[in-house]
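About this split. The held-out portion is used to measure sequence recovery: a designer receives only the structure tokens and must propose an amino acid at every position. Recovery is the fraction of positions where the proposal matches the reference. Here is one held-out target exactly as it appears in the evaluation file.
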């Protein structure tokens, strides 16, 4: 649809720029082999961070192709998503860099220095706010489209798909809310929970995928 092109192109450009900011060498070219080796330690965190951003980009593209409304609401919600992505880039990479440093028993060097547990709590808090905002941006985009279902002339299966997609982003945001609560309330010895709580998505989302598949299948029968 022609009306979608400019907003979609704007979103594509913003996500592409965010991926550029994640580049392993940072803002300058490595000047020695040692610097290159050090930069390559950031490859795994770059891949993990890029995968998450690409997931949100793809979801926005799917929404844009089938559900985008050509109004100020869609523009504002997409702008919220884009602005959050651009702010979220560095906390995202720092969290994955720290996690992979821990997972590799120190082999992969982190991209930042944390002086205290308070620094780690602050990082997880900033990350959670960005992650939650991105999830809610997509949730609101789908809910906004559902309010305009008549204008978009959505079929029943498209309405159900939009409803299921919106709920999926609430589920995606759930560990973020828990992490945020933990970062403000948990004692230092439970610091790891503020990050590990996101592993719940490995259980929640496959189960929800089964539920969503059954809902769509029931509609087709």
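Reference sequence for scoring:
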């Amino acid at each position: 649809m022609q009306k979608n092109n400019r907003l979609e192109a704007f979103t594509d450009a913003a996500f592409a720029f965010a991926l550029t900011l994640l580049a392993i060498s940072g803002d300058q070219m490595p000047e020695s082999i040692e610097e290159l080796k050090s930069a390559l330690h950031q490859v795994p965190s770059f891949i993990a961070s890029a995968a998450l951003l690409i997931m949100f980009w793809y979801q926005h593209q799917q929404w844009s192709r089938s559900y985008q409304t050509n109004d100020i609401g869609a523009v504002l919600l997409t702008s919220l998503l884009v602005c959050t992505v651009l702010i979220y880039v560095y906390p995202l990479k720092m969290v994955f860099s720290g996690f992979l440093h821990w997972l590799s028993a120190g082999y992969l060097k982190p991209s930042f220095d944390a002086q205290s547990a308070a620094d780690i709590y602050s990082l997880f808090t900033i990350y959670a706010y960005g992650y939650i905002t991105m999830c809610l941006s997509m949730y609101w985009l789908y809910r906004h489209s559902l309010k305009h279902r008549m204008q978009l002339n959505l079929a029943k299966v498209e309405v159900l798909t939009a409803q299921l997609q919106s709920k999926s982003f609430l589920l995606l945001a759930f560990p973020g809310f828990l992490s945020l609560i933990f970062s403000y309330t948990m004692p230092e010895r439970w610091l790891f929970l503020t990050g590990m709580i996101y592993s719940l998505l490995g259980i929640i989302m496959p189960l929800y995928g089964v539920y969503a598949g059954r809902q769509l299948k029931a509609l087709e029968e």
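Annotator remark: The mean pLDDT is 85.
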